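Look over what follows to help learners.
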Amino acid sequence: MPRTVTDQPAAERELPAGLISLDELRNAVKREQIAIVMPAVPDMMGRLQGKRIAARHFLDRVDSGSAASEACAYILATDVDMAPLDRFELTGWKDGFQDIGVVADLDTIRVLPYLPGTALVHCDAVYRDNVAVEVAPRRMLQRQLARLGELGLEIRVGLESEFVLCRGEEPVSSHNLDYSLNHPPAMADFFRDLEEALDRSGTPAEAVKTEGAAGQIEVTFPYGPALPACDSYTVYKHATKHLAERRSMVATFMAAPFTGVGSGLHLHLSLWRDGEPVFATRAGEAPPETMLHAIGGLIAGLPHLAPLYAPHVNSYRRYATSHAFAPQRMNWGHDNRGCAVRVTGHGEGTHLEVRLPGADANPYLVVTAACAAIVHGLTHQLTPTEPTVGDPYADREAPPVHRDLTEALAHFERNDFAENALGADLVRHYAHAAHAEVDFHRREVTDVDRRRGFDRA
């Protein structure tokens, strides 16, 4: 039986929990409670990449003003298999896959209770002259947050994540347990460990529930500033996979892990000005003008940014099944879970839920895309069409979501929107990654190919 968080020795339990200061880290290192620090850069898929560094060496580097670590630039120019892809402008065989610096954000040091004696710190990627690597997902989000700041606005987000827990290739539960409180023992034990690990690593869940597909789980997180929310999400995903593996299980974040099953990464968002919620709406009132412009921007802009929130060939299979709670049309509606953008909440809690991203999406890029679209809507004062009433899947007035990554890529590359919102260099970088993904699948012979053609062609 794997050791749970609560089985740790007393000396470990006395560690400060969650986010800690640099001074608290120093004290923990002196007391020999922290031996390893992991400086981590979120990669293009939103995975934490880095090294395990002796804690004293990490402190020495911080004190000297040096980068926390170095890494091969290919961590920001690769595919899901970590294949070193060539012909990126950032890196490739043309320059021998050079190193980049990894600079610690010292406000993000946190203790990982599921890895005893270990702390994690989120980092930003820089070139040797300390210039930011603009294609790094964390940097991309920082730039879009700055654009909103120039309009006097702050975005606050809450992330809602779905994944499927499997043993081998089969879900740990055999049927729909949506909202059930009667869970199989293996799932209940996993919940307990996950909730405690998230709480003690400074990224507590607001709620955990079973979802509508076999083995499917939904975890929702509290509302807050965007960058810390995305940092916390990467810790959650790291912890989820680690704890599942300790129990000989697999947590899959595929957007469509099985035919007819979709897992999402829903983005709840609102805009704030001077500490006040801009979307606040009293019962019976019309939506605020700023919220309508934001919706207009999302509906108009997100189709041109799909490779940021639906980056894989599999991402688009989540949209393929009608009435499966994944949107099929670029529409919006009030408390309608079939729409691409859902207006939900009430009073000061009124906010938008963007339901397009799948579980395979990178949270930094999801929020980057949403911010870019919202800025477009606000600056051009876009007004959306009327909200969808009734069945959103029967809405033939709204344009359909993209059928596949090839179609999404064409809109990303061949329209000025993405380039104006992100910059030409970023569009080329993420378009190249998407082309590599499409090309990989074009070469592969799948089980479906064999089943439909092996003895019939």
